[in-house]
Amino acid sequence: MKKPMRVAVTGAAGQIGYSLLFRIASGEMLGKDQPVILQLLEIPDEKAQKALKGVMMEVDDCAFPLLAGMSAHSDANTAFKDVDVALLVGARPRGPGMERKDLLEANGAIFTVQGRALDAGASRNVKVLVVGNPANTNAYIAMKSAPSLDKSCFTAMLRLDHNRALSQLATKLGKPVASIEKMIVWGNHSPTMYPDIRFATVEGKPAKPMLNDDAWYKDTYIPTVGKRGAAIIEARGLSSAASAANAAIDHVRDWVLGSNGKWVTMGIASDGSYGIPQDVMYGFPCTTANGKFEMVKGLEIDDFSRERMNKTLAELEEERAGVAHLLK
Ligand SMILES: NC(=O)C1=CN([C@@H]2O[C@H](COP(=O)(O)OP(=O)(O)OC[C@H]3O[C@@H](n4cnc5c(N)ncnc54)[C@H](O)[C@@H]3O)[C@@H](O)[C@H]2O)C=CC1
Ligand SMILES: O=C([O-])CC(=O)C(=O)O
């Protein structure tokens, strides 16, 4: 029997939490032979804590063989103690008519507190995934609030965008999703994101000539992927939850267990590559192995891509300036 891994989930009584916890406890995230201990954080509010208890009762009722322990917390310091993985989901979601950056003020402050708590108590190799919006900037805040942890401990979720980009392209081409490789979504988890199919392959052959429809790519595909979150809110009245939880599982599973050479999009702190200033949390193509991610480097950036990449960067820089006061 392997030693249990400690997994913190914040916002555990929320919509995403309700889809996420059961899949983590069943072994879908860390492996079918990996016991887990869940450390669940909710706000110190009677209603939220009661709802969390209810979700934990349901998790108990599944009798998951891999669940080696579970605790409820209202303080980030105890929730993050010794954790190997931290999924920072807890934050206010947007409603109709809002952009994710409208959440900056409301949610940004959460991530300074949680970054400090991770800095103080988490495993030195903790893998942090920020899901709460605006995800890139919140991940940046958490990273900057945790100076004793390596920057590579912190990531933001662009996997939902990556999966949306795969699915939309697969449908258009009438090909299985699994036949598509080398997808990239550059930049911010916002409508400025740039789903880039220039390197994508379908059954090993280049996707772009197969698609052969630049107008659809630019005028339909890019905005459809970028605005999918808003389309879900419009249709459901609530923001994506099951698909977001699924993307979080995919992101952490690949980070921990490896992507087997496949490209995945992760929001990571830039090292200055591709002209993206150091430390900006930006969606980059990565491969993962041995519990580490590595950026795919040396890809050619054409004029169209440069323009798109600069646009999403400008938005991230603006968000970063908007939270500078939180990091003093
Ligand atoms: N990066 C991505 O691709 C996606 C991000 N999201 C974001 O994920 C976040 C959560 O979404 P939902 O689960 O739908 O929202 P929700 O409102 O259903 O649940 C959020 C939960 O977080 C809790 N919470 C708030 N502040 C907290 C704190 N400081 N510590 C611990 N818990 C806290 C709330 O009490 C609530 O139970 C939102 O910010 C949403 O915009 C949603 C979908 C995709
Ligand atoms: O759009 C939202 O606010 C929720 C989200 O991030 C997504 O579905 O991509």
From TrEMBL:
One of its GO terms (molecular function) is L-malate dehydrogenase (NAD+) activity. Coiled coil: none annotated. It is an enzyme of class 1 (oxidoreductase). Catalyzes the reversible oxidation of malate to oxaloacetate. Residues 159-320 form the Lactate/malate dehydrogenase C-terminal domain. Keywords: NAD, Oxidoreductase, Tricarboxylic acid cycle. Its EC number is 1.1.1.37. One of its GO terms (biological process) is tricarboxylic acid cycle. It catalyses: (S)-malate + NAD(+) = oxaloacetate + NADH + H(+). Residues 5-151 form the Lactate/malate dehydrogenase N-terminal domain. The gene is mdh_2. Substrate binds at residues 94, 100, 133, 164. This is Malate dehydrogenase. The lineage of its organism: Bacteria, Pseudomonadati, Pseudomonadota, Betaproteobacteria, Nitrosomonadales. The active site is at 189 (proton acceptor). NAD(+) binds at residues 11-17, 107, 114, 131-133. The keyword Electron transport does not apply. Belongs to the LDH/MDH superfamily. MDH type 2 family. It comes from Usitatibacter palustris.
